[in-house]
Design a protein that fits this description.
The protein contains twelve helices and 18 strands. It is an alpha/beta fold. Strands 1, 11, 12, 13, 14, 15, 16, 17 and 18 form a nine-stranded mixed β-sheet that branches. The chain has an eight-stranded parallel beta barrel with strand order 2-3-4-5-6-8-9-10. α6 runs parallel beside α7 and α8 packs parallel to α9. Bound molecules: ligand LLP. The site of ligand LLP has 23 residues, from α10 and α11.
């Protein structure tokens, strides 16, 4: 769990003051720190880092990734087009749309972006449309992992990737259409703290790679977890080095090809800890067995607690030294799954207080909805220099209504 410094707390309060709530605030310095940490641990490997922009596609976040030399894992035409318009070079973008349509395949290919294909039938239709081309295939090595069953993306029951057992069929299609398989990809899940399982999955792909003679890269996916709870530790980077980085270096050293590189494509690891969702406490209500602190945000803005039972630490920014009391911290949405924290000790919450929901920089804003016709939160960017920018405003009631009315 992120521990806010007193100056970050002051900054957050002044953001709430200046821009109102609900608001996502992102600290650039945290993102830059996370990127450097990963780069440092992977140094010595022929490497490319992509950013899984589904975690958070705010413009300043994307620009930071661009400046840091990262590429992009894009999974929809809009993600792809947005990344290109922000200046990411085509050869640093990989298009991994799930259940890709013909239209999506042409969209990416016309722009010169490489496809990452996870279905045999799509490989076949790509071969028919673009014989003689290069392509990446997503494998399912049957080893999955993640913080919740909803985020495990490999294994017998997962819809993702082509099972390694069907590699002969991949070669067969590739031969028929003279496709060059230049990349192998896997992504086994999200929020992984267990480096042993991650290595187990990677080693399946490395073993499978032996039959692919023209590989230029092996993309081992994202999935690196971060600590959300106060008693949770960070990913053990020394075991990451020992169990993953060292064997990868050995694999590269032993590999016959001179120009094979290893790609990683994290989302959460880069951005989760940078983000705080600010909300205003509208109502404090004593129920018969619970005290409810009702805010002006909710599951429409951060769905992770409702969707996965995820823990996000909640701090009372405006009364940090108040006596701790136990609350259900809830939102203003008409659902009983609308909560940030249940039965949680927080410094006394009073009507008018500002709370911060921590570690919300990944899969927060990007999973927001406008359910109940409530606007998405505003987004604010805190540069490493301390400069503060409103990067996206909230919508007014009039704008929400105009959106809904459309041309009627
Ligand atoms: N690559 C692919 C192909 C992916 O599907 C994903 C995430 C990533 C990379 C990045 O994974 P990360 O490094 O962020 O774990 N909404 C969930 C997480 C879903 C992740 C989906 N795919 C959550 O809030 O926990």
């Amino acid at each position: 769990m992120t521990i806010l410094t007193p100056s970050q707390r002051e900054t957050l309060l002044s953001c709430a003051d200046q821009f109102g709530t609900p608001t996502y605030v992102y600290f650039e310095e945290t993102i830059v720190r996370q990127i450097s940490t990963l780069k440092e641990h992977l140094s010595g490997l022929p490497l490319r880092l992509l950013y899984a922009m589904k975690a958070n596609h705010a413009v300043p976040v994307m620009k930071t990734m661009l400046r840091e030399g990262l590429g992009i894992d894009a999974v929809s035409p809009a993600e792809l087009e947005y990344a290109l318009q922000l200046g990411f070079p085509v050869d640093r973008v990989l298009f991994s749309a799930n259940n890709m349509t013909d239209g999506e395949m042409h969209f990416a290919t016309k722009r010169g972006v490489m496809l990452n294909v996870g279905e045999l039938s799509r490989l076949e239709s790509f071969g028919q449309a673009y014989p003689g081309s290069s392509v990446c295939v997503r494998l399912n090595g049957q080893v999955g992992a993640g913080h919740h069953e909803h985020v495990i993306t490999a294994g017998d029951k997962s819809k993702f990737g082509i099972p390694v057992e069907q590699i002969d069929a991949i070669h067969d299609i590739a031969n028929r259409y003279e496709l060059t398989i230049v990349g192998l990809h896997q992504h086994i899940g999200s929020g992984i703290m267990d480096t042993e399982t991650l290595w187990q999955a990677i080693s399946v792909i490395l073993d499978a790679s032996v039959s692919f003679k023209d590989l230029r890269f092996i993309n081992v996916g994202g999935g690196l977890g971060i600590p959300y709870r106060p008693d949770e530790s960070s990913l053990d980077m020394s075991s990451f080095d020992r169990l993953i980085v060292e064997p990868l270096k050995q694999f590269i050293a032993d590999h016959p090809s001179e120009d094979l590189s290893i790609w990683f494509e994290p989302g959460r690891f880069f951005t989760a800890q940078s983000g705080v969702l600010l909300a205003h406490v509208n109502t404090v209500k004593e129920g018969t067995v619970r005290t409810f602190a009702g805010t002006d945000s909710g599951m429409n803005h951060l769905v992770r607690p409702a969707m996965y039972g995820s823990y996000h630490h909640v701090v009372n920014l405006s009364n940090p030294d108040g006596p701790e009391k136990t609350y259900d911290v809830v939102g203003n949405i008409c659902e009983s799954s609308d909560f940030f924290a249940k039965d949680r000790a927080v410094a006394e919450l009073r009507e008018g207080d500002i709370i911060g929901v921590l570690d919300a920089g990944a899969y927060g804003m990007s999973m927001t909805t406008t359910y109940n016709m409530r606007s998405e939160p505003a987004e604010v960017w805190i540069e490493s220099s301390g400069d503060i920018h409103l990067s996206r405003p909230r919508k007014s009631v009039d704008e929400m209504v105009a959106d809904a009315l459309g041309s009627h």
